[in-house]
Amino acid sequence: MHVNAKKTAVSGLLMALSVVLIVLSGILDFSTLFFLAAAAFFVGIIIKEYGLGYGTAFFLGCMVLGFLLAPQKLYVLTYVMMSLYVLGIEFLWRWLGKHPDWKHRKGIFTAGKFLIFNVMYLPVLFLFPKLLFAGEIPKTMILVFLLGGQVALFLYDMAYEYFLVSMWSQVRDKIFGKQN
């Protein structure tokens, strides 16, 4: 199979699966975040396999199809935020890879993850709380959601790393064959 044909076929199947997961998140409310996170993880797979440019195009395609097909547009917005986080950390990872002589790259990467997340999360939490909550929100609850968001970031990031390193490598071997 020609390389571009394989790339197109794999990314097309993953895009279809991503959109199905986005749609399912609006239909099966008991696993909304699971489905949206899984759909966003596919952006990381495409980036890992084909690069940031192809991953960005994949994300944009999923976003457009999600808005066109998903019944819950707010869930698509959540998918967009999760995928932007994946795009951001993958960009940061590659950028730090170009600077192997820098000290504390792991610390920079960790700080960058929190910065990327909070640049998206804090404006929504403080400027648009009606998107997240109905009614009036006490200041103590804002603090709880602020801390809860950081815990959610930690869990999401751990799940993403586990998925990309452990689970995808096993599936990848079945799709592309063993790599040396």
Explain what you see.
α1 (3-27) runs antiparallel to α2 (32-50), α2 packs antiparallel against α3 (52-69) and α2 crosses α7. The protein has helices at 3-27, 32-50, 52-69, 73-97, 105-127, 129-132, 139-176. The longest helix has 38 residues, at 139-176. It is globular and about 55 Å long. The chain contains 7 helices and no strands. The chain is mainly α. Helices cover 84% and strands 0% of the residues.
Topology:
Layout: H1 3-27, H2 32-50, H3 52-69, H4 73-97, H5 105-127, H6 129-132, H7 139-176
Helix pairs in contact: 1-2, 1-3, 2-3, 2-4, 2-7, 3-4, 4-5, 5-7
What distance separates the N and C termini? Answer: 20 Å
The count of strands amounts to 0
- Low-confidence region ranges: none
Mean pLDDT: 88
Percent of residues in β-strands: under 5%
Helix content: over 70%
Most strands sheet: none
Order of helices and strands: HHHHHHH
Counting DSSP H or I runs of 4 or more residues, the number of helices is: 7
Helical/strand content category: mainly alpha
- Rounded to an integer in angstroms, the radius of gyration calculated over CA atoms is 17 Å
Outline of the structure:
This protein is mostly helical.
Task: State the main characteristics.
180 residues, mainly alpha, 7 helices, 84% helix, globular
